[in-house]
């Protein structure tokens, strides 16, 4: 890490602030690892004041970068690597969770997005599904050990369709989708997916499509027919999650089971049902998360 630092004499205040912030974030991510995957207070180099006081679902996104004093971060990381199975993979997974929590806060239906101050249920549904797919695909690539494929510069999140994430592992070229419907198959996005599969095949890779939600049998048949032309395979629903978890370590499998199958478990006091259809209503199942305001103002 220090090898990328500028010489101390030339270090600007901005560079120092960014370096310190990265270290604080790393310490907090390790603290969450201990809470989620180790016995309480297992890490000797992690002081009590650095440990989370809440469950992961209730931790505000900006907590991860709050300053924490009195921690030997080098010793802590060395200890965590020895104590925590799949340390590096979990670090990236939890960083993706932090990003998801930040974006979920920004998409809160009580944000000032409409005439009545509410984000429309249709827009909320679309944008939240996009964030869920991004989280699931990112975790899947980590679990599979994929190298992310370079893509064009992304559009701003709110102007983006469901993100198309792809990765390479050995002879396979993976594409990830949250869901596939008949409407999707009739759209230009499906043509792009098939073009990517064709290009992968032409480059010597075996295309693999992972769809995280269950889909109808007719849709599955169309997907399989399309990918078979390129010597590829399609995994949907349970088969997709089974494929992702098959080669993953124990902690990554636990992580997937806890958070990837139901990402709403990462957002406090929000349940999907009242928010997908109709006008959001304030009630016991659709309360505003207590940390939303600070998360939006202090996101990082």
What does this structure look like?
By secondary structure, the protein is α/β, with parallel strands linked by helices. 47% of the residues lie in helices and 8% in strands. It has helices spanning 13-37, 73-83, 87-106, 121-144, 182-185, 188-202, 217-228, 238-246, 250-260, 273-276, 292-297, and strands at residues 147-148, 165-169, 172-177, 206-211, 233-236. It has a five-stranded mixed β-sheet. The longest helix has 25 residues, at 13-37. The radius of gyration is 21 Å and the shape is elongated. The two termini are 20 Å apart.
Brief rundown of the structure:
With 300 residues, the chain is of the alpha/beta class.
How is the main sheet built? 5 strands, mixed
Major sheet: arrangement of strands:
1-2-3-4-5
Provide the structure class.
alpha/beta
Q: Give the oligomeric state of the chains in this entry, treating copies of one chain as homo and distinct chains as hetero.
A: single chain
Unreliable stretches covering 5 or more consecutive residues: 1-8, 112-117, 151-160, 271-288, 291-300
Order of helices and strands: HHHHEEEHHEHEHHHH
- Strand fraction band? 5-15%
Count of beta strands: 5
Keywords: Plasmid
Question: What attributes characterize this protein structure?
Answer:
5 strands, elongated, disordered C terminus, 300 residues, five-stranded mixed beta sheet, alpha/beta, 11 helices
Task: Please describe the topology of this protein.
Layout: H1 13-37, H2 73-83, H3 87-106, H4 121-144, E1 147-148, E2 165-169, E3 172-177, H5 182-185, H6 188-202, E4 206-211, H7 217-228, E5 233-236, H8 238-246, H9 250-260, H10 273-276, H11 292-297
Parallel strand pairs: 3-4, 4-5
Antiparallel strand pairs: 1-2, 2-3
Helix pairs in contact: 1-2, 1-3, 3-4, 4-9
Keywords: Plasmid
């Amino acid at each position: 890490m220090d090898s990328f630092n500028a010489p101390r004499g030339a270090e600007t205040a901005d560079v120092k602030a960014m370096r310190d912030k990265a270290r604080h974030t790393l310490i907090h991510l390790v603290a969450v690892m201990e809470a989620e995957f180790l016995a309480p207070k297992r890490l000797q180099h992690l002081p009590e004041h650095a440990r989370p006081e809440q469950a992961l679902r209730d931790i505000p996104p900006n907590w991860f970068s709050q300053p924490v004093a009195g921690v030997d971060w080098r010793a802590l990381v060395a200890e965590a690597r020895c104590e925590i199975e799949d340390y590096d993979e979990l670090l990236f997974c939890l960083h993706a969770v932090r990003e998801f929590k930040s974006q979920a806060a920004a998409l809160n239906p009580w944000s000032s997005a409409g005439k009545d101050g509410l984000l429309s249920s249709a827009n909320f549904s679309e944008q939240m599904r996009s964030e869920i797919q991004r989280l699931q695909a990112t975790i899947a690539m980590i679990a599979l050990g994929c190298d992310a494929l370079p893509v064009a510069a992304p559009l701003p999140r709110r102007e983006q369709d469901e993100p198309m994430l792809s990765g390479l592992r050995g002879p396979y070229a993976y594409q990830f989708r949250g869901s596939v419907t008949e409407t999707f198959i009739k759209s230009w996005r499906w043509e792009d997916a098939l073009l990517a599969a064709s290009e992968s095949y032409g480059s010597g890779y075996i295309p693999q499509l992972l769809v995280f939600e269950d889909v109808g049998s007719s849709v599955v048949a169309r997907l399989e027919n399309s990918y078979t032309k390129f010597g590829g395979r399609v995994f949907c629903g349970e088969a997709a999650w089974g494929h992702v978890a098959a080669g993953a370590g124990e902690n990554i499998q636990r992580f997937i089971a806890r958070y990837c199958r139901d990402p709403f478990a990462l957002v406090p006091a929000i349940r999907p049902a009242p928010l997908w259809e109709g006008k959001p209503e304030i009630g016991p199942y659709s309360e505003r998360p207590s940390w939303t305001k600070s998360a939006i103002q202090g996101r990082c």
